[in-house]
Structure formats: C-alpha cells, structure tokens
TrEMBL record:
Signal peptide range: none
Family statement: Belongs to the UPF0502 family.
UniProt organism field: Massilia agrisoli
Annotated keywords: Coiled coil
UniProt-recorded name of the protein: YceH family protein
Higher taxonomy: Bacteria, Pseudomonadati, Pseudomonadota, Betaproteobacteria, Burkholderiales
Pfam families found in the cross-reference section: DUF480
C-alpha cells in the first residue's frame, strides 16, 4: 500500500484507464492554455495526448484510439461532443468541473497530477502556473486537501519515501492499484546512477525544445488568420 492510509477511492466500476485519464487531462489543460481552440478537434486532442513535454509517461496514441476513448468517456458523461452548424468535425470538451464540482484551482491540481503522475505540492505549484497561478505552496496544499476530502476521494497523499522530506500526492481516478504502480515506478528511478543528472538535463532540454516548437506552430497559425 503506497498511501498513508486506506483511502477507499472510487469503486472499480468508476475507475478510468490511462488513456481515458490522458484524454481528460489534455482537454482540461488546453481549455486553459488555448481557449480560442477549445473545444478540441480529434486531431488536436490526439496531438495533445502525444505531446513530448509536460507528460509522464509520453504516449503514442492513434486518432482511432483517441476516438474510441472519447466514445467511452461520452457514454460515462465525462466528455461532451459538440457539432456546430456548418462545422465539418465534432469537437470535444471535458465535464470534470461539473462531475466533481471543481473550481479552477482544484481542477488545475488534478490536471497536473493526471498529466505528470505523483508530485509534491511544490512541484505542482511550479508546473501548474499556465493553468492556474498559485500564490503559495499553502494554496496548493489547500486544493489538494479538498480533493482528498471528497467522497470518494480523487487524490491521495503518499507515504514519505526514504530520504525525502516532502510528501507526494497522486490522483485516484485510475484506482489505488494504478497509483501503487506509479509509485513503484518512481521508486525504481528515484536514485539515478552516475551520469543520471546529465541524462535528466538532456531530457528537460528536449522537452523545452518540443514546447518551443509547439508555441511556434501556434503562432504561425495565429499569423495566418491575418494574411
């Protein structure tokens, strides 16, 4: 058991698989980051799911897989499909805010945990700035406690790992077993071998380059609107 105490979590019938979690999280992220392109098309959503930066793990999903995931999420009322008059494609929006009665700060915390796995409150604050600006770590901790106190809870506080001072938190949408697997995977790489710091920096540089490329593409699309 990786949590400090048994949280109960959602029942197994309500659990989401990793692809469903990724699709929901990308919809919530892009709603905040690129509101002009939200709701999202299937193509844009697939690209967001496969993004190399700000994702752990990195996934490689086909449009067919994402379309199947969307159908499951729509059946369970996690996602709405919107077909506007004259539009050639259906666009999609999440319903997490309604599903769990979440204000933007709580939604931002949950989204970051869904996109990047278990993290400390400080890491969440650093990584969520583009979705919601937290003034302090205490504000993040308050949002985390709200998500922990929900019934059933959607977030759990993890036991302190050896040699660490700050607790980490993980989302429970995939169930406690899935969270335990994520925590085990973290433990297996938490003590990198010699040269690990260099490899980590190389990964961070690659992720930043990918993010810059994405921003350039968005800017070019914006420019074309005025040509």
């Amino acid at each position: 058991m990786t949590t400090e105490e048994s949280t109960g979590g959602a029942d197994s019938a309500a659990e989401l698989d990793p692809f469903e979690i990724r699709v929901l999280a990308v919809l919530a992220e892009k709603e905040a980051l690129t509101p002009d392109n939200y709701p999202m098309s299937l193509n844009a959503l697939t690209n967001g799911c496969n993004q190399l930066s700000s994702r752990d793990p990195v996934m490689h999903l086909s449009e067919e897989t994402v379309a199947e995931v969307l159908q499951r999420l729509m059946q369970r009322k996690y996602v709405n499909g919107i077909t506007q008059a004259g539009a050639r494609v259906t666009k999609y929006e999440h319903r997490m805010r309604i599903k769990w009665t979440l204000e933007q700060d709580k939604l931002a915390v949950l989204t970051i945990l869904m996109l990047r796995g278990p993290q400390t409150a400080g890491e969440i604050r650093t990584r969520s700035g583009r979705i919601h600006e937290f003034k302090s770590v205490a504000e993040v901790e308050s949002a985390l406690q709200f998500l922990i106190d929900k019934y059933p809870p959607v977030v759990a506080r993890l036991a302190l790992a050896p040699g660490t001072k700050e607790p980490r938190y993980g989302q429970l949408l995939g169930g406690e077993a899935a969270l335990a697997r994520e925590e085990s995977a973290f433990g297996s790489i938490s003590a990198p071998a010699s040269g690990g710091r260099t490899a980590q920096l190389e990964q961070e540089v690659a992720a930043l380059r990918s993010e810059v490329d994405e921003l350039k593409a968005q800017f070019e699309n914006f420019k074309r609107q005025f040509e």
